[in-house]
Amino acid sequence: ELVQFLLVKDQKKIPIKRADMLKNVIRGYRGAYTEVVNQAGRTLQEVFGLQLVEIDPKRHSYILTSNLPCAEGNHPCRSKEKAKIGLLTVILSFIFMKGNSVKDSAVWEFLRRLRVHPGEQHEIFGDVQKLVTEEFVRQKYLEITPIPLTDPPQFNYQWGPRAAKETSKKDILNFVAKVQGKSPKFWSSQYNEA
């Protein structure tokens, strides 16, 4: 039952809370919580190639990540989802290459140069600003923190815990190097960090 619950919840890519697992599935078996979660984790791994990962130990929230190698072109997601992941990869790359934290104005200026405008409806992404500031944040791919004492309010963008679990700085640097047609070693500080 827990495996099914986790698979359904993960479709929206929103972290799954321990409280929801207890309330909706485990109910009267609270004493066996750890054992039930561990068994569900093994089943997810063996049957679906997914790993149950705790991303926030304080709030006890979890995500599912794929253990399966991802062959380019054979990705099971639809083209719109692929495009969103592409946009997310570009944003994560920008954040990493700029020192792991970037002001919101820099992110939007960067996207404008790619002809993706935050205030306009995009034919593939829809409302880009909502996608980036709400959906990617809710899914824990991005974290947005306010910069104190700024008027109008400004924000910093960083990688979220799901991004750190589903990709690596090395993969992102290799992506940037491939796009730029250079060796990853060209960016020595990012290369050392990755």
UniProtKB/TrEMBL annotation:
Coiled coil: none annotated. It comes from the Eukaryota. GO terms for cellular component: nucleus. Residues 1-194 form the MAGE domain. This is NSE3 protein. It comes from Campylorhamphus procurvoides.
